[in-house]
Specification:
The complex is a heterodimer of chains A (114) and B (114).
Chain A: E1 5-7, E2 10-13, E3 19-24, E4 31-37, E5 43-50, E6 53-56, E7 65-68, E8 75-79, E9 88-95, E10 104-105, E11 109-113
Chain B: E1 3-6, E2 11-14, E3 19-21, E4 23-26, E5 32-38, E6 44-50, E7 56-59, E8 62-65, E9 75-77, E10 86-93, E11 103-104, E12 108-113
Parallel strand pairs in B: 2-12
Antiparallel strand pairs in B: 1-4, 3-9, 5-6, 5-10, 7-8, 8-9, 10-11, 10-12
Classes of the chains: A mainly beta (114), B mainly beta (114).
Chain lengths: 114, 114
């Protein structure tokens, strides 16, 4: 089966611009997660979708971040306007059954804000 | 809150050397513990896991034992290969959380030289 696909793999933007990251989970996986690794630090949880509903968005840093999963398939994470501290690697993961199955991660989208 | 601390990298070893990457955790109750690995250009992959005290997870020659008394889950391998060069992340899932959320350490980069 195809894995979790993320794009772009790398995006370089200016401070104040907008970037949209996309994640295509494994087909049939209801659970979709976004994580972020900033400046070589720990990978931090951002939010969790179950189908199209946000189950837990406690890790979203502020209202400049907007995540959507229309139709319960792919998800987008928009950063608007981007700030320097948003630079990092954004990981997406999916799983079939909540809290039971191990998460399958994508390769990540590296965001550089200049 | 729950957290994971792992030894700082980068760690540089010669091929066939013994590897230990330390990981300690703070958590309420008894979490499940994981080691994930990220090879260059790839996504995070589950390396091994342990779900209760004294369990030993193992895979690809790597081992880690869930030590409740020391709240540790150190990763070991008896003889590393160049192909083991990657970033290793220790992580936990809190016992009370059924949403599949993972809490990660900061990652340890391993470089194995021939």
């Amino acid at each position: 089966e195809a894995g979790v696909t993320q794009f772009p793999s790398h995006s370089v933007i200016e401070k104040g611009q907008t970037v949209t990251l996309r994640c295509d989970p494994i087909s049939g996986h209801d659970n979709l997660y976004w994580y972020r690794r900033v400046m070589g630090k720990e990978i931090k949880f951002l939010l969790h979708f179950v189908k199209e509903s946000k189950q837990d968005e406690s890790g979203m840093p502020n209202n400049r971040f907007l995540a959507e999963r229309t139709g319960g398939t792919y998800s987008t994470l928009k950063v608007q306007p981007a700030e320097l501290e948003d630079s990092g690697v954004y990981f997406c993961a999916s799983s079939h059954r909540t809290g039971v199955d191990v998460l399958t991660f994508g390769a990540g989208s590296r965001l550089t804000v200049l | 809150g729950d957290s994971v601390t792992q030894m700082e990298g980068p760690v540089t070893l010669s091929e066939e050397a013994f590897l230990t990457i330390n990981c300690t955790y703070t958590a309420t109750g008894y979490p499940s513990l994981f080691w994930y690995v990220q090879y260059p250009g790839e996504g995070l992959q589950l390396l091994l896991k342990a779900t209760k005290a004294d369990d030993k997870g193992s895979n690809k020659g790597f081992e880690a034992t869930y030590r409740k008394e020391t709240t540790s889950f150190h990763l070991e391998k008896g003889s590393v290969q160049v192909s083991d060069s990657a970033v290793y992340f220790c992580a936990l899932t809190p016992r009370y959380n059924q949403g599949g959320k993972l809490i990660f350490g900061q990652g340890t980069e391993l470089s194995v030289k021939p």
